[in-house]
Amino acid sequence: MQSSPPQIENELIEARELIKLNIISGVELQDSTSSSAQSTSLKRALLHNLASLSCLIGSHLFVDIYNSLLPIISPILVLKFSLGLTDIGFLSALLSFTGAFMQPIYGYLSDRFNSKNLVLLAPIMLALGVFGIGFSTNILTVCLCLCLMGTGFSLFHPKATALMGSLSTQYKSSFLSLFVAGGSLGSSLSPIFILLFVSEKSQNLSNLSWSAIVALIAFVLLFVFYRIPHPEISNLKPKIHLPLKQVISLCLNRDLVLLTTIVTLRSMSILSLIAFVSSLITHSWGWSLVLAGYAAAILNVGSLIGGLFGGFVADRTNHTKIEPKFVLLTSFVLSVPCLMLFVINHSLVFLALGAFFSAWSNSICVSLSQKSVPKEVQSTASSLTMGFAWGVGALIIPLIGFIADKTDNLGHTLLFALSLPLLGAAFCCLFLGKKA
Which end of the chain is more exposed for a tag (fewer CB within 10 A), N or C? Predict the structure, then answer.
């Protein structure tokens, strides 16, 4: 029996509706699958970024937790090896020289070969140096161990800074400020951490060797970082290996030289204070070693908060009319009187304020140094402002110790060193352009 025309027409309509429904369902299923895949990919990328940030910030914390080791143990070294302030200044300069002055060399090697082995070697060198100090029986062994520690610092900072800067372009200064804050937090905890292993009542430093375990935690974090996929970091690999002569030429541009000079003057001031703050408090003021440790912690906490604030301000300079020169100038002008008042009035409040104002220019200096050169030499540029400038600044420390020994007045000698950033402020006003 054949179907009537109206019945056939109804069947055709139903068939069309069924086909249309299937097509729509298929599209919805495809869109749903695509949306789910994008959501999963976004979550994975977010987790990778958070893990990467955590590894780099954490490793910086556990590396810089040894920053206050020498200032804290210097009063013990004075008694154990019959040293003077000039000798302590020499030891501080030696650590700063190997830990900062050599950074451009390691930064260049990092850019040239883009090898992760250098940065992974850093915590191991640091651990060996700390372990050796605990069993040192003479001052020469201490010097050798300080060189190992300094080498560890030099190997870590240029490459790790470049890696952190590569994780984001839009929020580079904020990322760098978090990285710097991780190191500042480690430095803040450093006095308390070191005091767990030493005592002012004993000249035995053997317990200090146990603290080397923390450096190995930094190694583990760096190892985990390199196990995380980083497509953006592959862009750091230079397509053409630049010759050393061209690297030097790129890094000798006017802006980078000015920034390096300004940071050098500031580092002369702050490194002199860090080197002798324990001796000033224990020998000149008569306070205990524990209180000296607390003062060093306050100094580092102020630097931590100032560094975070400086990163926020640095990013705002990219979106507002705030000039980088104004940020640097304000940092120097405000930090000098606060630190001087600390020495004169013995007030830890002024110490915290001075450290805050001094540190808020850290991130913007590093960010501007990286922006002033091509991507292929960013590790080298970072090492100039984060390393070389601090190494040159450390050369003044033995001179400060020598003058203090001759005048028998460490406080007045430190006032001279603390005034040097005012010269950096003058360079800001006279030479540094609106866009450094």
Answer: N
Q: For residues 119 and 160, is the Cβ–Cβ distance under 8 A?
A: yes
Q: Rounded to whole angstroms, how far apart are CA atoms 140 and 396?
A: 21
Residue 263 has pLDDT above 60, yes or no: yes
CA distance 296 to 267: 16
Instruction: Read off the pLDDT of residues 96-130 as tens digits, 9 standing for 90 and up.
Output: 778 777 767 776 676 666 566 778 889 999 999 99
Containing structural domain, residue 317:
47-430
Q: Would 3 be classed as within a structural domain?
A: no
**Cβ neighbour number for residue 128 with a 10 Å cutoff:** 17
- Element (H or E) spanning 9, and its range? helix 5-64
Q: Are 361 and 342 in contact (CB under 8 A)?
A: no
Instruction: Categorise residue 270: left if φ over 0, alpha if ψ from -120 to 50, beta otherwise.
Output: alpha
Task: Let me know: does 328 contact 364? Beta carbons within 8 Å.
Answer: yes
436 belongs to a structural domain: no
Report the domain count for the chain: 1
Quote the CA–CA distance of 381 and 332 in Å, as a whole number. 22
DSSP codes, 165-181: HHT-STTHHHHHHHHHH
Query: How many CB atoms within 10 Å of residue 283?
Result: 15
Handedness of CA 110, 116, 120, 125 (dihedral sign): negative
Q: Would 16 be classed as within a structural domain?
A: no
Do residues 57 and 167 lie in contact, with contact meaning Cβ atoms separated by under 8 Å?
no
Percentages helix, strand, coil for the chain (3-state, rounded to 5) are 80, 0, 20
d(C-alpha 386, C-alpha 395), whole Å: 15
User: Each residue of 7-58: pLDDT tens digit?
Assistant: 555 554 555 554 444 544 454 445 555 556 556 665 666 677 788 888 999 9
In a domain, 372, yes or no: yes
Cα separation values, 390 from 53, 74, 310, 363, Å: 25, 20, 19, 15
The answer to whether 129 and 77 are in contact (CB under 8 A) is no
Element (H, E) at 182: helix 172-195
Q: What type of residue is 212?
A: A
Note the pLDDT of residue 59: 93
One-letter identity of residue 96: S
Return d(Cα 347, Cα 355) in angstroms, integer.
13
Per the prediction, the chain carries an average pLDDT of 78
